[in-house]
Recover the amino acids of this structure.
């Protein structure tokens, strides 16, 4: 066994950073306590194929990791950790049906392992199977209430699944998770942004404003929060102030369609029609399938007495909406 110098707190912070990077980048990464123990143990004490699978997986060499993980399973098909890494590697290769089967088998082999549930829930979330992800993530939180990533993903999943699950109090359920995280770790990335979204959706603009302001104080380069703050200020009738945030967001992310869309709304609210049209045009140029961008541009053309251009944009809007599932 090699010596571990870092403190438990430092290890926990590193794991959180890895999880956040994984969640926002859309990659797959395991966080099981079993894997952590195996990584820290002497290689002599571990199956060579499993060690190889872990190493290849960490370097995103997924085909090679899959081969090694399969060999490890051939050695011991009842090893939960082997089954787990095999499932996650399948998920990384977009082989979701088999990935789900193996992750479920890992859970069956070791049902008390909270992070097995978290990882399975995360894969379901990536597949947009939100209704299936909810109970899995709830179980992860039940097993380990201190797993803030599980709580964060559960909160996001409540919001995403409320239509399919017909959860009437989804916003309250999500709010409970985000509030717990914010209290436990106020520096948790994006938690104040998600709190703001729920408050805004519930009509509590002042609380939403407070949370967005906090998010930007903590993470000054959070362009998404800056855009949403700008949009909220437009709704609150503070369009001039909104423009300050949105122009800054445009400088930070000129290739982000939502920035230009929200800018167009702010310019429109301040009677700057030419700038509004230009911003809306840029929005749909960057994302031709941005339905709301075409709708807004159509409205702006109509207000500018350009009915033909307005009609064309509304037709594009209808075409895009008809293609949506």
């Amino acid at each position: 066994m090699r010596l571990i110098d870092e403190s438990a707190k430092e290890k926990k912070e590193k794991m959180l950073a890895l999880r956040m990077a994984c969640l926002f980048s859309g990659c797959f990464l395991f966080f099981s306590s079993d894997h952590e123990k195996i990584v820290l143990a002497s290689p002599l004490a571990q199956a060579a194929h499993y060690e190889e699978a872990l190493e290849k997986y960490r370097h995103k060499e997924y085909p090679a990791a899959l081969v090694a993980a399969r060999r490890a399973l051939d050695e011991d098909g009842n090893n939960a950790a082997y089954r787990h890494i095999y499932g996650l590697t399948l998920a990384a290769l977009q082989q979701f049906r088999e990935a789900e089967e193996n992750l479920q088998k890992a859970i069956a082999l070791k049902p008390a392992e909270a992070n097995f549930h978290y990882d399975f829930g995360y894969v379901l979330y990536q597949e947009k199977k939100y209704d299936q992800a909810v109970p899995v993530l709830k179980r992860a939180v039940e097993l380990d209430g201190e797993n803030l990533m599980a709580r964060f993903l559960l909160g996001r999943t409540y919001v995403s699944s409320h239509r399919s699950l017909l959860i009437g109090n989804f916003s309250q359920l999500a709010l409970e998770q985000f509030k717990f995280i914010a209290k436990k770790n106020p520096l948790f990335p994006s938690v104040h942004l998600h709190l703001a979204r729920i408050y805004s959706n519930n009509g509590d603009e002042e609380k939403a404003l407070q949370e967005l302001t906090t998010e930007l104080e903590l993470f000054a380069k959070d362009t998404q929060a800056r855009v949403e703050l700008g949009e909220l200020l437009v709704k609150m009738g503070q369009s001039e102030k909104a423009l300050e945030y949105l122009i800054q967001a445009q400088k930070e992310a000129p290739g982000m369609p939502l920035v230009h869309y929200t800018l167009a709304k702010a310019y429109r609210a301040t009677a700057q029609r030419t700038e509004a049209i230009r911003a809306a045009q840029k929005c749909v140029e960057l994302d031709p399938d941005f339905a709301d961008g075409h709708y807004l541009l159509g409205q702006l053309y109509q207000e500018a007495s350009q009915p033909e251009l307005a009609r064309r944009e509304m037709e594009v809007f209808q075409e895009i909406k008809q293609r949506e599932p």
The two ends are 54 Å apart (CA to CA). The CA atoms of residues 121 and 137 lie 5 Å apart. The chain is about 75% helix and 0% strand.
